[in-house]
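Example record

Each entry pairs one chain with its bound ligand, magnesium ion.
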Amino acid sequence: MKISLIIPCYNEEESLPALYTAIQDVAKTMKKYEFELLFIDDGSKDNTLKMLKEYAESDKRVKYLSFSRNFGKESAMYAGFCNATGDFVAVMDADMQDPPSLLPQMMEIIEGGEYDSVATRRVTRQGEPKIRSFFARGFYKLMGKISDVDIVDGARDFRLMTRAMVDAIVSMNEVNRFSKGIFGWIGFRTYWLPYENVERVAGESKWSFWKLLKYSMDGIIGFSDTPLKIASWSGIFFTFLSVIAMLVVFIKALAFGDPVAGWPSTICIILLVAGVQLFCLGIMGQYISKIFRESKRRPQYIIKDTNKKDVVRK
Ligand code: UDP
Ligand code: MG
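Structure tokens for the complex follow.
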């Protein structure tokens, strides 16, 4: 039986040595299994690729795919899923925040046969900026309420799954990818393994606040049509309101005549309604832009360099 580890790396030269050693150590304790270490170099500008090539030279288990530019972690994971050959597949960050030492325990749970995947969730977020934790928590709550998939708070992308589940993920070939939503959407039985947050071994987080905000918008738009509903409900609300307002104005004019007054309130109403309209148009635009991207069917990643024989390009 073979376990494939998919490891997306973007400028990870500082964390790779620690990770590689840690994986070698775990692999030694799991003699039953063959390993495939599938590193995805997501257009790194540092020595990541060079280091991967060095590892690959001395270690047959090491495979790498190197992208022509930075396509983002989602594309890197997808490339990994498309190219992993193991009977079991795990996604793992390069910075040791997804501790490789959890693998034996995860494998044991899968071997029990009751679950198709073992996912991990952080029960703490220490070491992370407070403001980031606050928004992350809020996002998971919101997602749980408005989308068709349930996302556990603190859920990581770090999970081990069976081949059947991986094939299902590969079949979800949407361009706007949000893996946590995809994992939830395809179903299967998942065991949630809690663990304490671990800080990055080296280097810095590759996600800026804006990158995360954009990513969370992708998640919401990809897995929920609640924003569209909000747009139509606010449309209905304002239509209703304007009918009442018209009646009031009409009756008032009949009863008290029509002295020309009240332009400040008129301006206020015009501004408010124009604002709501633009807001709703914006929501619509978000969905349309996603449709536009999907319809172009551009490749999700471009591989420039690899030591794998038959690479799958999608
Ligand atoms: N990553 C990537 N492409 C990107 C950003 C990140 O492949 O554009 C990888 C990164 O190398 C790491 C993982 O995704 O292995 C998680 O990134 P990071 O640790 O920076 O995120 P955080 O843990 O802070 O959420
Ligand atoms: Mg990290």
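The domain at 2-208+299-306 is CATH 3.90.550.10 (Spore Coat Polysaccharide Biosynthesis Protein SpsA; Chain A).
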